[in-house]
């Protein structure tokens, strides 16, 4: 199992982050022109982007926007942290191992357990933007595909 940490991206984001402190209040849109979007881990196809909203991805408690184009497959992977997700735009199917597929619509909340492998598909029509809150340091670990119900 190959583990990919986002330490190199963390350094970039620390230099470019929109907000620099837990003491600073923040209200921001995924359409804000000041967001600094960066690439996702290499195992995710080109087109995927991340923007750090607050925190240091190498440390606990980081919030990000995760964006993929419409008609986009996110490969099978897992995280060491739980994911607290709100779909900001688009429609997203998420396939967690040994569970039935779930469809998340714009404005809906989803909880992704730590270390539970999953893949996802952003429907045609509109890009998917997810707000994701990570409790542990941000990582993405590619895993071999498994069957879903």
TrEMBL record:
Swiss-Prot/TrEMBL keywords: Signal
Pfam family, one: Cupin_2
Residue span, Cupin type-2 domain: 67-131
SUPFAM superfamilies to which the protein is assigned, alphabetical: RmlC-like cupins
Signal peptide boundaries: 1-21
Keyword Signal (UniProt): yes
Name assigned to this protein: Cupin type-2 domain-containing protein
